[in-house]
Amino acid sequence: MKKFNESYGILAGVDGCSKGWCVALGFLRKATGAFTAEKILFCRDITEVFNLGAEVYAIDMPIGLPMEHKPGGRKCDRLARKLLGPRRASIFTPPPRKAFSFKSYEALSQSGIRISRQSFNILPKIKELDLYLRKCRPKSIYETHPELVFFRLHGDFLPSKHTSSGLNLRVALLVGTSLFRSLERNLNAIKGNLRLDVLDAYACLLAAKRIYEDKAQRVPENIEKDAFDLEMAIWF
User: Fold this and answer.
1) In a domain, 92, yes or no
2) Beta strand spans in the chain (E)
3) What range does the domain containing 47 cover?
4) For an engineered disulfide with 23, which of 31, 41, 76, 145 has Cβ 3.0 to 4.6 Å away?
5) pTM, rounded to two decimals
C-alpha cells in the first residue's frame, strides 16, 4: 500500500447518511498503529468526500454492480450473508445498473427487479458513487460493511444495533481496540440516528486501517470485476 508520509497516514471510513456522507477521518500514527485523532465530517456529495485526500477509503456502499438483476446479488453479498448468519439481512442485494432509470419502487418491482425497499432508498447514493468511480477511476477506495467489521471484532453474532444492548456492545468493541482517541467524544456530540452513522463510519475506519496495513479479510478471496472493471469484494 502506498504511504505518503513517513510518520502518519490519513484514512477514512465512510457511511451514507441523511446529510449526505458521514466520514470518520483518522490520523494514524504509524509507529504505534493507533489514531492520534479522528474527525467526523458530513459531506454533501461524494466528490467532497474524495477531495479529503485520505490514502485509503473504506466505504459502506456497493462498489461494482451487475448490469442485470441477479437474485441474491453479487458473490461477495452471498458470502457476507453466510458469515453473518442471523444478521444476514443487513447485507442488501445491490441494484443492477438498469435500476437507475426507475423513479419509483413500484415501477422497479413491476419490471422484475426484486430488491429491498431499503436498498431502493439508497439508490441515489449508489448511483452517485458508481458514476464517480467510473468517471474518475480513483485508487485506494474499498467497499466494506460495518456488520462484518463488528463480527470480526466480536467473534460471534451481535444483537441489532437498533437495540441499546447492540449499540452499547458495538461501542465497547471499538473502545476495546484502544485504537481511537476521539471515539466517545465524537459519538456523544451527535444526537439521534446520526449516532448510528458515526458508529458505522468508525467501523469503516477500522476496515480502512486493516486494508492500509494489509491485515484485512475480504470476500470473495478471488476478486470478481464488473463490466466497467470495478472490483466486487467486501473488505473487513
Assistant:
1) no
2) 8-17, 20-29, 34-43, 56-60, 141-143, 218-225, 231-235
3) 8-61+141-212
4) 41
5) 0.95
